[in-house]
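Report of the visiting student (M.T.), summer placement. My assignment was to run the structure pipeline on a short list of targets and document each run. The first record concerns HTH asnC-type domain-containing protein.
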Amino acid sequence: MLSRTGSRFFRQFDRFGRSIAGERRQFDTQDNDRRPMDSIDRTLLQLLEADSRTPVKTLAAHVGLARSSVQARVRKLEETGVIRAYTIRISDPEPAEIEAYLWIRTGSATCAAIAPVVSKFEEVLQCRSISGDRDMVLLVRARTLDGLAELRNRIAALDGIANVETHPVLKDWI
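After the run finished, the structure tokens were exported:
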């Protein structure tokens, strides 16, 4: 049954998508249980994607519909699987810090000459002389892998250092 409101025509449909006048409603999808998405549904999805906790009252005001209409639309989007879940995105709560050991082989400098220089880096937690192929070992802490790489490069560029090996800590056992 058609009615005229202003210059626009509206056709009424029952809950199964059939026109009250007896015509079958055409769907955009192959699933006849799913009604076609319109611009309001897409706007609701964009708003919920930006903040899944947006109150229905705010959604309704944004799209210009009653709260009950918005609730029905969101429920239908959930039931048909368009909205599968409401999730959170963690921005960066407290970035985990990365610890690593830097094994240093000195060149022309002694450990006694290098130790005071590397102790000025705030990321250096410990500096020890060791025996064997390496001369020193540093325990360092950085906020990111990029920060660790940048620290390693700064230490490798110091005068008297021949080689630096980086060994990130994967897990603490004790």
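The helical segments are 39-50, 56-63, 67-79, 111-118, 145-156. The CA atoms of residues 42 and 48 lie 10 Å apart. I thank the supervising group for their guidance throughout the placement.
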